[in-house]
Write a structure and sequence with these properties.
This protein is mainly alpha-helical and 170 residues long. It has one domain. It is 55% helix and 7% strand. α1 (2-27) runs antiparallel to α2 and α2 packs across α4.
C-alpha cells in the first residue's frame, strides 16, 4: 500500500506544479513583455514591446490567479505534507528525519487518514502470519505505533496532534 501512497504524493506534486504554471500565466497579464528577434547584440536584432492589457482588473491580480494560488497553498500543500509524513511513518522514519525544522503544526487529521487508508492493507493470510486475528487488531497496533512515534518525535506539545492530552491515551 505504500506504493499507492507514493503515487498519491507524485500526483499531488504534479498538481502543484501545474497550478503554479497556470498562476504564472495569469500573473504575466498586464505586464509588458519585451520580445527580441534575432541574436542578442547582433546588428540585425531588434526588440519590440508586446503588452497585454488587463482592462477588467487594472493594477490588481486576476481573480483566477488568486483562486489558483489559494487552492495550491491551502488545499494541495497540506495534503502533500500529510502524505509525506504518513509515508515516512509507514517506512519507519523518525519524525525528525522527515521534518527537521518545522514552525507550524502538521495537518494531523490528514496524516492519520492517510495512515489508516494506506497503512492497513493485508490479506487474511498475511494477517495470520503477523499474528493478527482480524483487521481491527492491526489498526489498533498501528494506532499504538503512531502514538509512540509522536511521543518520541521531539515535537513541542503545541505541535503534537493531541495538544494538551497524552497521545498514548488516544
Amino acid at each position: 500500500m505504500k506504493t499507492y501512497l507514493k503515487m498519491k504524493i507524485g500526483g499531488l506534486a504534479a498538481e502543484a506544479k501545474i497550478i503554479k504554471r497556470e498562476e504564472q500565466k495569469w500573473k504575466l497579464l498586464g505586464k509588458p513583455v519585451v520580445v527580441t528577434v534575432g541574436k542578442k547584440g547582433s546588428p540585425s536584432s531588434r526588440s519590440h514591446v508586446q503588452s497585454f492589457s488587463m482592462k477588467r482588473f487594472p493594477g490588481t491580480d486576476h481573480p483566477l490567479r488568486l483562486s489558483l494560488h489559494e487552492h495550491r497553498i491551502a488545499k494541495v500543500r497540506p495534503e502533500i505534507r500529510a502524505a509525506l509524513l504518513a509515508y515516512g511513518f509507514l517506512r519507519g522514519r523518525t519524525y525528525l528525519q522527515i521534518e527537521n525544522n518545522t514552525k507550524s503544526r502538521p495537518p494531523w487529521t490528514l496524516v492519520i487518514k492517510n495512515i489508516k487508508q494506506f497503512g492497513v492493507f493485508m490479506t487474511s493470510d498475511q494477517l495470520i502470519e503477523k499474528g493478527y486475528t482480524d483487521l481491527s487488531e492491526q489498526e489498533s497496533a498501528l494506532k499504538q505505533r503512531f502514538a509512540e512515534w509522536i511521543d518520541n518525535s521531539g515535537l513541542p506539545a503545541s505541535l503534537k496532534p493531541y495538544a494538551g492530552v497524552s497521545s498514548a491515551s488516544k
